Amino acid sequence: MHAWLCSNPIGVDALEWKEQATPEPGPGEVLLELKAASLNFPDLLIVQNKYQMKPPLPFVPGSEYAGVVRALGEGVTHLQMGQAVACLTGTGGFATHALAPADRCMPLPSGFPFEDAAAFIMTYATSHHALIDRGQLKAGETVLVLGAAGGVGTAAIQIAKAQGARVIAAASSEDKLALCKKIGADVGINYAAQDLREAIKAATAGKGPDVIYDPVGGDLAEPAFRSIAWRGRYLVVGFAASPTIPTLPMNLPLLKGASLVGVFWGDFARREPKSNAAMMQTLAQWYAQGKVKPVIDRVLAMRELKQAYALMGSRQVKGKLVLVN
What letter would DSSP give residue 105? Predict the structure, then answer.
């Protein structure tokens, strides 16, 4: 097998494509022949030693991937040889083969392409957990999605529309906003060219959005929060504008009767596995019904990983980048 190894987490340039012995699965594990993997923002942070998870060195980055089961470890009974699965394990995906905990593998229904499967779990689980569980989004409410053309942003648009909400997409270019409207957004705000607060006010007739979905942080957070509706819910999803993590005046939630809500899907999945499994089943059904579908910016060969990282780092990606073997 071959894999991209991170022996020194000082950045993308230090990654090396190396041949390794194909491992054997241990108890509770499966060996996968990988068909596709997607690039997520944490995959960039982890090779820069900026992510909250610090795997032992060396490690293979790539949190999310899909492939075919080629060997079963002891005690694995719910998966079969030759079965197609998608996994999200934090590391291991940027390779030709990977060991994965069997309980972290999602069996794929017939007709679920590997490219879509590799771009599905993290963004859709994060966005569903954020909007439906943490944000308690209801039909008829208005959602503002910041960073709306990215992976979690495009997933959030689709999930909000499936829930019957009105969606305001905010992104940094007209090209990105065109994509957001194509997948269901009702209104677009170009925060690189418009005053964010004035644009939100115009889009909501002065009321403000009921739910704000923020995977960006940075300088957008405070003007967005100041625009929220009475009893609004501000979802703290991530900090793509890192290293600038915003600080908010604590009188703002008081004045708006609003909630500042943390979203940490990974820990939700660990702490509440039954609820997470039910959510994933719902999302798989929505995919089959055509309500959600990953937006894939482009598909590259696995050996082109550094190019993929460069595209993500320069904010040129709309939706998700997928690498294939």
Answer: E
**Do both 140 and 245 map to the same domain?**
yes
- Domain region containing 35: 2-120+294-324
What domain count does the chain have? 2
The pTM assigned to this predicted structure is 0.88
Q: Are residues 154 and 54 in the same domain?
A: no
Structural domain includes residue 284: no
Residue corresponding to tokens 């987490």: 9
Phi, psi for 309 (deg, rounded to 5): -60, -40
For residue 113, CA distances in Å to 73, 196, 295 come to 25, 38, 13
- And the tokens for 98? 């990977």
Omega before 58 within 30 of 0, i.e. cis = yes
Q: Are 196 and 224 in contact (CB under 8 A)?
A: yes
Q: How many CB atoms lie within 10 A of CB 174?
A: 11
**6 and 130 belong to one structural domain:** no
pLDDT tens by residue, 124-165: 999 999 999 999 999 999 999 999 998 899 999 999 999 999
How crowded is the C-beta side of 198, counted as CA atoms within 13 Å?
Answer: 5
At 315, list the tokens: 């904010």
State whether 40 and 77 are in the same domain: yes
Does 107 score more than 80 pLDDT? yes
- Write out the two tokens for 182: 């194509």
